[in-house]
Amino acid sequence: MKSWYLILLCCVWPAQEAVAACAFTSNLSSFAAETSRLVDDSSLPAPEVESVHVTRGLNGGASCDQMGFLSVKLRWPRGSGYGLDEIGFEYRLAQGTAPEGLMPPGPVVAPVSGRKTEHLFTWFDGTPAQQQALNLMLEVRAVTPDQRRGPAMLLQVPGS
Questions:
Q1: CB of 112 within 8 A of CB of 31?
Q2: How far does the chain reach from its first CA to its final CA, in angstroms?
Q3: Lower Cβ count inside 10 Å, N or C end of the chain?
C-alpha cells in the first residue's frame, strides 16, 4: 500500500510543480515616476504603435503553456527632446476588462533598440476552454523623469 502512495506522489507532484514553475517573466521594469504627480503636457509626442500581437494560452503540459502574452511594439518619434532610453510609458485601460495581472500598476520601460522598444505583458490565461475573449482598448502615454505625461495613443488589443 505504501508503494502505491509513493507512485502516486511521484506522478502527481511533478505535474503540480510544472504548472507553478513557469520561469518566464515580462521584459518590463518599473519607471521611476510618481504617477500621482504627473502633469499632462501636449508638447510631448505620443508614441507610434508599430504592432500589437496576442498569443493565448494552450492546453499543453509545459509549465508556461497557459500563459498569455501581449506584445506591443512602439517607436519613439524624432524631435521630442528625449531619447527612448530616457522615458517610460504608462498604460491604462480605456475600454473593456483586462485579465488579472495584465496591466502594470505604473509606468514601465523595456530594452531599447534605437527608437524602438517592445513591451511584453504576461498573464495567466488558462486553457482555451477557460479563456475569456479579449476586447480591449488601451491608451499608452510617454512619461518623462521630470513628471510630465504626453498625449495618449489608443491601441486596440486583438480579441479572440
A1: no
A2: 48
A3: N
- What is the rounded distance in angstroms from the CA atom of residue 80 to the CA atom of residue 52? 23
What are the structural domains, with CATH classification, of the chain? 24-157 (2.60.40)
Q: Which residue, chain included where needed, has cell 523623469?
A: 145
Average pLDDT, the chain: 85
The per-residue pLDDT for range 64-86, each reduced to its tens digit, is: 888 999 999 999 999 888 999 99
DSSP 36: G
Task: Evaluate whether 73 touches 155 at the Cβ level (below 8 Å).
Answer: no
Are the beta carbons of 6 and 120 closer than 8 angstroms?
no
The 10s digit of each residue's pLDDT in 87-104 is 999 999 999 999 998 999
In angstroms, the CA 13 to CA 24 distance is 21
Q: How much of the chain is helix, strand and coil, in % rounded to 5? A: 15, 35, 50
What is the phi/psi pair of residue 143, to 5°?
A: -130, 130
Grid look-up 482555451 returns 128
Torsion of Cα atoms, 117 then 119 then 120 then 124, to 10°: 180
Euclidean distance between CA atoms 18 and 154, whole angstroms: 37
